[in-house]
């Protein structure tokens, strides 16, 4: 593994941030075990926070947003997938929430009754726009599409308005912290934080037939030089 900033930290810290000097393969039973434990504990903690803390109850925050059930599949199950990494998890959900709140606010200018008639359109448009923005910013996280949809079509989520943003940020943070804890006991998470490590590409070897500076394969030049060495010399007229 190429050296990273995490490699400079003590192993007792870098391990829980996903760094491994030499990653080892994971047996199937380890994947199954920690996928179950991580998903169960992570979603339970989320529901305990929003369903039992009086502060959130008073603000009528749903016990959990359904889109985080899908995030659990990625962040506790398929933890090596690019779509499950912290950048996609946190920023993807935030982008989708902001996009949906902005679009539903615009539709809300038409009036409550008209908005209810067009709620389906607001949901479809919010999700479609959020997908494109995630693609442009390279933060695609499929469950975040559900976040954008819920903010428009689910009345309990739509009622939160701009307060949805801190709820999303807290929910994503809880999933991330619990994923770091449970996934790094016997597995490795994340694979990267902001950008995936790029493998070094070896330069083509001229000795092995790679292109030379003129773009002509060296092996062809060798054949040409051999042919010229067999030429007796200039012909005499």
Largest sheet: none
* Strand-residue proportion: under 5%
Structural class: mainly alpha
CA radius of gyration is: 27 Å
Order of helices and strands: HHHHHHHHHHH
- What does the oligomeric state look like here? single chain
Shape: elongated
For the termini, the CA-CA separation is 67 Å
**Rounded average pLDDT:** 86
**Count of DSSP-assigned helices:** 11
Query: What proportion of the residues is helical, as a percent range?
Result: 55-70%
Number of beta strands: 0
Low-confidence stretches: 227-237
Describe the structure.
It contains 11 helices and no strands. With about 240 residues, it is mainly α. The protein is elongated and about 60 Å long. The termini are far apart. The relative contact order is 0.14.
What is shown here, in short?
The chain contains eleven helices and no strands.
What is this structure's SSE topology?
Elements (H helix, E strand, L loop, with lengths): L10 H4 L13 H25 L1 H5 L8 H11 L8 H23 L3 H6 L1 H19 L4 H12 L1 H4 L5 H20 L34 H12 L8
Helix pairs in contact: 2-4, 2-10, 4-8, 4-10, 5-7, 5-8, 5-10, 7-8
List keywords for this structure.
single chain, 237 residues, mainly alpha, 11 helices
């Amino acid at each position: 593994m190429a050296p990273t900033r995490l490699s400079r930290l003590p192993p007792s810290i870098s391990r829980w941030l996903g760094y491994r000097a030499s990653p080892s393969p994971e047996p199937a039973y380890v994947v199954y075990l920690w996928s179950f434990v991580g998903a169960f504990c992570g979603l339970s903690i989320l529901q305990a926070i929003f369903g039992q803390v009086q502060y959130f109850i008073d603000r009528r925050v749903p016990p959990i947003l359904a889109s985080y059930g899908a995030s659990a599949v990625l962040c506790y199950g398929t933890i090596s997938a690019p779509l499950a990494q912290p950048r996609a998890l946190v920023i993807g959900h935030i982008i989708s929430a902001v996009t949906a709140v902005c679009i539903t606010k615009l539709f809300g200018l038409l009036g409550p009754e008209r908005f209810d008639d067009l709620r389906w359109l607001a949901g479809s448009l919010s999700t479609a726009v959020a997908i494109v923005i995630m693609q442009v910013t390279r933060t695609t996280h499929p469950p975040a599409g559900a976040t954008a949809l819920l903010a428009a079509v689910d009345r309990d989520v739509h009622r939160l308005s701009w307060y949805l943003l801190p709820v999303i940020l807290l929910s994503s943070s809880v999933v991330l912290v619990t994923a770091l804890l449970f996934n790094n006991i016997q597995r490795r998470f994340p694979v990267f934080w902001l950008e995936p490590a790029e493998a070094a590409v070896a330069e083509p070897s001229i000795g092995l037939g790679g292109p030379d500076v003129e773009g002509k394969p060296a092996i062809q030049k060798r054949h040409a030089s051999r042919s010229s060495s067999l030429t007796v010399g200039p012909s005499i007229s």
